[in-house]
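Quick one - inputs below.
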Amino acid sequence: MKELRLMKGNEAVAEGAIRAGADGYFGYPITPQSEVMEYLMAQQPEKRTGMVVLQAESEVAAINMVYGAASTGKRVMTSSSSPGISLMQEGISYLAGAELPCLLLNVARGGPGLGTIQPSQADYFQSVKGGGHGDYQLIVLAPSSVQEMFDFAFLGFDLAFKYRNPVLMLSDGLIGQMMEKVELCEQLPRVTHFDRSWTLTGKPDGQERNIVTSLDLDASRQEIHNQHLQEKYRQCKENEVRFELLNTDDAEYLFVAYGSSARICQKAIQLGREEGIKIGLLRPITLWPFPAKPLSELAPRMKGILSVEQSAGQMVEDVRLSAGCGVHIEHYGRMGGMIPTPEQVLENLKKLLITK
Amino acid sequence: MDIKDIIKPENLVYQKTPLMTDKTLSYCPGCGHGTAHRIVMEVIEEMGIQSETIGVAPVGCSVLAYDFMNVDMVGASHGRAPAVATGIKRCWPEKFVYTYQGDGDLAAIGTAETIHAANRGENITIIFINNGIYGMTGGQMAPTTLEGMKTSTSPYGRDLKSMGNPLKMTELLAQLPGTCYVSRQSVHSPRNVRRAKKAIRAAFESQKANKGLSLVEIVSNCNSGWKMEPVASNEWMVEHMFPFYPLGDLKVDGKLVNNQ
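Output:
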């Protein structure tokens, strides 16, 4: 029998983490994602599964607790919102450099600076183009429903351990705060076996000790390490692209949108089709690796492509790189925590791509 | 009699702990770090906990501590070792977790992590090397630099009015209910080495008994940073550092000692 529950996005990801067999959560309160830790604390997962939940003194401490905990080979995570995620960037770079798996969640809000507490997608560049220092990549998942907030906790941990790399769920205040029906799956057991090739479990007698670090003062060895990371990212690009297509078979115009914007575009497609405008949607599920190939295949069939984001236009750069020069590409978005309506999206498709 | 005739197991009076690797130490000759490393490792060997211990290296002169300490180790970012140790200890509560940090790491950039780990009573051990200077980056002023002390960023001496006061982190941490054992030692003489080792043992025993955070500060010299000969730097340390950073236990078994 299906286990259905009406949940907030922030609660769903917390429940997902418990059921995915997470060992630890370290976080610091910030709107609009505080329900993640509130839900975990209320659930007392140390009694349910043995999962540890700790409120840190800052986002900086939280990400470094994640770094230490991840070095033990356990499944650990943190969550925050835009300003807090900015604070964590140094630690995220260390996690990527030391090749430690973990799950990160950004329930993004409007910026820059303290900005606002309303939803935003202006952290796209930070998420997919680096964020911290050095040549590294995060695997970035973009949930567009409360169900995906739950499901991606599982997928996120799986990908993190498959590639020994941090995985970031880039959500936003809209997906985090809204309530939807969620189908819950069974509790997974917590992992009890630790890969001694890299985890810190205490040096067994007669075996070599393990060292977890991102430091190598020998530049030639550091370059080799970087080449290894790049090879890992190449494999990830080849194997992990995820996306969803909606109404693209007969489409003449294409929306490219992720997360909450993809939900708004679904309604805009319906409104457009009522007026006889054939619109489809490509929804990237992985923002990195970006679904460049499917977009490049769709693009030549389109009269125009509209990248819809709650930002000044960030993902549109990847849309342009992927789709090439042969097609008319525009961006439409609102900023600072404002959410576009489906009517505004459709109106701008007409204005920017049709009547022009 | 040839020297080879003397090298026999029955004549052995002392040997390097196997918990120190054979790698040549990266520290300046005369520096206290090497001795501090050795006695931490000797305590872990004597307690028989090598296979249950995870160490956290800082950023600073001892950034490469994991090259010398033969236990599982992780390198933390600057100042965050107590947070990293917290993450490890919460995941492995039954294992021994320690950090090894300098004064810049623990008392400047990592002040928040240090105080909050102590205040939560994290059941970890902190080894805190205080030489009043940033050694690794070339001798800049540290939070623990004494009044009037010349460094590359206080070339006319530390001026309290514009540069602030030297910070007594160990006294501050001893006040917190989360700390169980807090001690200040040095490693400049055989007697002090023995005392420091005893304090480190007490700190790890306190962790074994799940009593909360234990911390041993080791006031040490930095002959390169202080621009002195090693012996002269130790004499200067005794004369100037010890009056401001007095040696001895500050807190034992959760209770403050004497006038603390």
